[in-house]
UniProtKB/TrEMBL annotation, chain B:
Protein name per UniProt: Cytochrome b
Domain Cytochrome b/b6 N-terminal region profile: 15-227
Gene source species: Novosphingobium sediminis
Gene symbol of the encoding locus: fbcB
Protein's cellular compartments: Membrane
Keyword Ligase carried by entry: no
Record-stated family: Belongs to the cytochrome b family.
Amino acid sequence: MAGDGVRRRDFINIAAVSFAGVGGLAALYPLISQMAPSADVLAESSTEIDISAISPGQAIKAVWRKQPVFIRNLTPEEIKAADAVDVSTLRDPETLEKRTTAGKTNWLITMGVCTHLGCVPLGAGEGEVKGEFGGYFCPCHGSVYDTAARIRKGPAPKNLEVPPHEFSSDTVVKIG
Amino acid sequence: MSFPWANEYKPTNPLMQWVDNRLPLPRFVYNAVGAGYPVPRNLNYMWNFGVLAGFALVLQIVTGVVLAMHYAANAGVAFDSVEHIMRDVNWGWMLRYAHANGASMFFIVVYTHIFRGFFYSSYKAPREMIWLLGVVIFLLMMATAFMGYVLPWGQMSFWGAKVITGLFSAIPLVGTPLQQWLLGGFAPDNAALNRFFSLHFLLPFVILGVIILHVWALHIPGSSNPTGVEVKQESDTVPFHPYYTAKDGFGLGIFLMVYCALVFFAPNLLGHPDNYIPANPLSTPAHIVPEWYFWPFYAILRAFTSDFMFIPAKLMGVLAMFSAILVWFFLPWLDTSPVRSGHYRPLFRKFFYLLVVDVLVLGYCGGAPAEEPYVMISQIASMYYFLHFLVILPIVSSVETPQPLPFSITEAVLGKDEHATLAPATPAVA
């Protein structure tokens, strides 16, 4: 061993320090992971909402994962306005059909969180400004969404996010 | 201060030179725990425990800061928030067990460190200040551990808080108002829990500060050693790094094995099941005892069962319990023997081991129910405890004939020291 310039002690040194290094890094994992959402927070990740009382043209604000969700019953005019837009001209090209459930195109369910910096856009509440495209308007930095909640104007990069959801029945939707 | 032959910090890397010229922090570390700190070459494994205690403190601060991210210091939800940590928080069970058992490991290590000091008389001149600061650290540790144990707000937490603050009610005249002031009420409740949490977070950093003073004071004369003979020459020392970083690293490995065995295989071994019952101000647990590391002192507290002259038994117990630690402050002046190490003090050595047995007996009695024969044994053991420090130690120091000391650490290690023949009578102290 001594002949080829490698000492037994070098091996022990490298092995010991490596072992301690791996152990130290392994100990870091729980210390970092503990800050991620805990089991009780994750358990709140689905919510069921009764939509029977929402008539066409109305919207409600529900809460999912401690964030607002807009559930909107679109009028035939609003659907028509959304379908009339040439998708290729949009910043985040998506059709209304893609953003809703087949056969229930009038139910537009999106997060009430502006994709710019996270404010709650106006337009879901009674009497709130809906913006020039008749959908939502974010008062923080002036992002304007259309009747399919797609970004049309202002700094936001994306359409309002559509959360995973399914209709448990004709009057109940489950989000998450 | 250091020995004249200490290695000097000479960075070769230009960046490190640049840093060293502006902020000599690397130099400071090098001189404190690096190759620039010469340490006696004969330290045995008992000298690992200072570094281990420092490691245990860091462990407690890291796990504690993390737990504080999830714990809620409110009497209404504290217990549930601890269960939330155990069940919901990612790795929360491990972090909490690591913190709870980390406290036990901290005390195991510190008790060993203290008894190392007893055996090798590490408290003697010129190291009195290190010792005094060490006792301060121990007192702060006890306060921190006690307040931490209250936080889960289980039955033992609540009744521990009540009993320990009740100690202060023994003080004449101001006792009861003082207890109410400490608790912010008539019994432990939200006010007490909140202030205990605040102080439990603060005190470890105070401990860290006193540890810095402790190590600073240590670096003036340098570490003591198993012979108790002071360093005389370069051949008596080796640089801290790599010699003692490696030796401490080995000790740390053993420490972590014991610690992990506790955390992963017996996390509740040293705890009390009663603390998994939410605090109930209307019902005291049948057998209420503190955590194991307080048992010897708890036994002394309970040993006083009848009034002594004009002093009520309650006050006497409290005074005795605090005196049991305060007496350590006087140790450097109670032990007058010119020889430090227990290796060369045959009579002292016997009494040292007797003290160890005495403290173990006190510990056992402190954890036992307050009934005979444990009360009687506690009384005898408490009496002996004070007898040891106040009577036996001064007498032994003056009557004992110590065995001959080696000329130097080098001689103790190698069996011979060429300098010994050159200056046999008056060794030159560096």
